[in-house]
């Protein structure tokens, strides 16, 4: 069910591509005059949305007391990576048409592309180590530490969006606020836990564990 | 000898009862999602009501300018549904939707400042000041996309000569229509409004600078700057201010909206120049709407023969 839902954005995208807007509806929501820009924006939007959803799982589990939500976290995270791949592939294949030197120049020179590229690259190890086998191989502690990279990806993703817009900053600010809330929640929990541990054990060992 | 056992289905392979029993819900879920998406897309239309704004009308009696580009015209659907008109929303398709209720009658354009005969023009007067010409121009947006549009109008110089600029007039300042009632989305534009633009007097008097009242064979569409706008084909699109209400002849270089918003990215001149990048993207190439591969951008958008002489001796990297 969740898997099917996660495919809906792609489905709608493909639908728009082939149906020139939903049947019977005026086509102001279709690919429009600049389809490449349209696909780039749509896949980018869904990447940041799935990153936010993935980050929301842990807080929701605890706030709603629904620990079984953890089942969806990997899937949502992989969908974030999936849409990021589509976003990146659109840029490579459609926007830049495999002009590698031009792309590399952009990555180095244009700061919004630099951070977007970095955010994408940081997702690769997370996707590669998303299997149960890899979790076992790395060990839970190291795996968790590695997967905290998603925090960086989320922040870079928001910056990528913020630096890209010309003047209307509402959407990047909205995603920025969501990411900020989700990360702050973790920070608050972390501080609380540290307080608890500190009273039970020497501070040094508690600190060592966090690092 | 190792005999491999054929794997048999075990209890681990049994579909959990919950999932099996939920198979209809799964299908229902897909149907519901589909329905929700369809409803979501239809929603804005259900509440929109009938449009009350001014509509374009057919124009006749214009002549065809002999120097028009022979490049393929961009379909009118694209030119009217891919717009930057932040007063009507910042998305490319927003203006087409939100400018439907824009009322442009009556309309007055005032021309004053450093001139002997300042006056106000009604739209009727503007339409009849000079013979209308259809000129097919390349139009290059600072965002690196471009279109080819048959505009209808006459040289801005014709109008400026009527008010007789004094020798003090060195620049021309333009101000566009701004009314939060007619433009409810303008609050989130992120730029200071009303939108202001400016040209040097010689740029404004250049015969290419078009006071534009129509496109294709109609009057201007609301989302394209009805009822009267500027078209300066050798500069980035944002210099071609829409829905003009004031033209003022001035002594000093006037402030311009995008330059106020971000002076590192948008200069006063903003001549199309493939060698001077926007800080965030290259200006060397452009995507012509409807084409897949980017094409090289031309110096002065290909109008160098007519305009380059105005910038001789100027450092165009500095005066970007």
- Can you name the CATH architecture of the largest domain in chain B? Alpha-Beta Complex
Gross morphology of chain B = elongated
Mean of residue pLDDT values of chain A: 85
Structural class of chain B: alpha+beta
Q: Into which percentage range does the β-strand content of chain B fall?
A: 15-25%
Distance between the termini of chain B: 82 Å
Tell me the overall shape of chain A: globular
Describe, in plain words, how this protein is organized in 3D.
The complex is a heterodimer of chains A (211) and B (320). Chain A contains ten helices and no strands. With 211 residues, chain A is mainly alpha-helical. Chain A has one domain (36-210). The longest helix of chain A is centred in the C-terminal third of the chain and has 31 residues, at 170-200. Chain A starts with a helix and ends with a helix. In chain A, 24% of the residues are buried. Chain B is α+β, with helices and mostly antiparallel strands and 320 residues long. Chain B folds into two domains: 15-48; 63-311, Oxidoreductase, molybdopterin-binding domain (Sulfite Oxidase, Chain A, domain 2, Alpha-Beta Complex), CATH 3.90.420. Chain B is built from nine helices and 13 strands. In chain B, the strands form two sheets. In chain B, strands 1, 4, 5, 8, 9, 10, 12 and 13 form an eight-stranded mixed sheet that branches. A five-stranded mixed sheet of chain B has the order 3-2-11-6-7. The longest helix of chain B has 26 residues, at 23-48. Chain B is elongated, with a radius of gyration of 26 Å. The N and C termini of chain B lie far apart (82 Å). Chain A binds chain B through residues 1, 4-5, 8, 12, 22, 25-26, 28-29, 32-34, 36-37, 94, 97, 102, 105-106, 110-112, 163-164, 166-170, and chain B through 22, 25-26, 29-30, 33, 37-38, 41-42, 45, 77-78, 81-82, 86, 90, 92-93, 96-97, 143, 145, 188-191, 261, 280-282, 287, 289-290, 292-294.
């Amino acid at each position: 069910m969740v898997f099917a839902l996660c495919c809906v954005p792609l489905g709608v995208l493909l639908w728009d591509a082939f149906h020139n807007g939903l049947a019977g509806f005026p086509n102001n929501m279709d690919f429009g005059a600049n389809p490449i820009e349209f696909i780039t924006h749509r896949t980018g939007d869904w990447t940041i949305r799935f990153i936010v959803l993935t980050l929301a799982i842990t807080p929701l589990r605890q706030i709603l007391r629904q620990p079984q939500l953890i089942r969806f976290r990997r899937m949502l995270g992989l969908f974030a990576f999936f849409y990021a791949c589509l976003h990146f592939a659109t840029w490579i294949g459609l926007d830049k048409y495999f002009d590698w030197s031009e792309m590399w120049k952009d990555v180095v020179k244009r700061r919004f592309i630099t951070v977007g590229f970095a955010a994408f690259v940081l997702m690769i190890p997370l996707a590669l180590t998303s299997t149960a086998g890899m979790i076992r191989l790395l060990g839970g502690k190291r795996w968790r530490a590695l997967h905290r990279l998603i925090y960086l990806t989320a922040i870079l993703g928001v910056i990528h969006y913020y630096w890209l817009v010309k003047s209307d900053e509402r959407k990047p600010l909205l995603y920025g606020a969501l990411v900020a809330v989700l990360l702050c929640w973790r920070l608050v929990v972390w501080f609380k836990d540290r307080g608890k541990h500190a009273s039970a054990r020497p501070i040094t060992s508690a600190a060592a564990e966090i690092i | 000898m190792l005999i491999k056992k054929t794997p048999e289905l075990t209890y681990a392979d049994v579909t959990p009862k919950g999932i099996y029993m939920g198979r209809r819900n799964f299908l229902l879920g897909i149907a519901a999602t589909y329905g929700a998406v369809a409803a979501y897309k239809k929603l804005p239309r259900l509440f929109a009501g009938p449009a009350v704004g001014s509509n374009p009308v057919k124009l006749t009696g214009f002549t065809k300018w002999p120097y028009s580009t022979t490049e393929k015209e961009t379909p009118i659907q694209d030119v009217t549904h891919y717009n930057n008109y932040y007063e009507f929303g910042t998305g490319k398709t927003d203006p087409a939707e939100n400018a439907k209720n824009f009322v442009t009658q009556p309309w007055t354009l005032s021309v004053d400042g450093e001139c002997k005969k300042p006056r106000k023009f009604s739209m009727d007067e503007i339409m009849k000041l000079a013979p209308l010409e259809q000129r097919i121009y390349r139009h290059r947006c600072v965002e690196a996309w471009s279109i080819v549009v048959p505009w209808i109008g006459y040289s801005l110089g014709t109008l400026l000569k009527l008010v007789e600029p004094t020798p003090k007039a060195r620049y021309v300042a333009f101000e566009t229509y701004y009314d939060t009632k007619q433009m409810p989305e303008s609050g989130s534009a992120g730029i200071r409004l009303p939108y202001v633009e400016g040209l040097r007097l010689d740029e404004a008097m250049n015969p290419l600078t078009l006071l534009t009242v129509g496109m294709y064979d109609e009057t201007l569409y609301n989302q394209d700057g009805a009822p009267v706008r500027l078209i300066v084909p050798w500069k980035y699109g944002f210099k071609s201010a829409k829905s003009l209400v004031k033209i003022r002849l001035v002594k000093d270089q006037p402030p311009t909206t995008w330059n106020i918003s971000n002076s590192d990215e948008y200069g006063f001149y903003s001549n199309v120049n493939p060698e001077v990048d926007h800080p965030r993207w290259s200006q060397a190439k452009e995507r012509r709407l409807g084409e897949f591969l980017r094409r090289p951008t031309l110096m002065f958008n290909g109008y160098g023969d007519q305009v380059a002489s105005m910038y001789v001796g100027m450092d165009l990297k500095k005066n970007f």
